[in-house]
Amino acid sequence: MMTTFAALMGSLPIALSFGAGGDARRPLGLAVVGGLVLSQFLTLYITPVIYLYFERFQQWLAQRRSTHQVARLGAAE
Predict the structure, then answer these.
(1) Distance CA 34, CA 22 (A)
(2) Cβ–Cβ < 8 Å for 18, 10
(3) From the CA atom positions of the chain, what is the Rg in Å?
(4) 39-49, pLDDT tens digit by residue?
């Protein structure tokens, strides 16, 4: 988070078009700031949710496998 924040603060003057020729560099600054914000959001919020879904899917598969094994053992007897 600190690295992203430092990069964001460093590219903020470019995004706000400060200085001589700032109008020409503004699209680059906006792209950098937008990319940093989006990647930080994905890293902090979306990635843990994906891991939770994978964990629930793994538990569902384990439960399903155990149910099928019990059914096969009961049919074999």
Answers:
(1) 17
(2) no
(3) 25
(4) 999 999 999 99
Give this prediction's pTM.
0.63
- Give pLDDT tens digits for 7-40: 999 998 888 887 788 888 899 999 999 999 999 9
Give the model's pLDDT for residue 73. 63
Both tokens assigned to 74: 């009961």
Give per-residue burial for 24-58: e unless 16+ CB within 10 Å, then b: ebeeebeebbeebeeebeeeeeeeeeeeeeeeeee
- The three-state DSSP-derived secondary structure of the chain is CHHHHHHHHHHHHHHCCCCCCHHHHHHHHHHHHHHHHHHHHHHHHHHHHHHHHHHHHHHHHHHHHHHHHHHHHHHHC
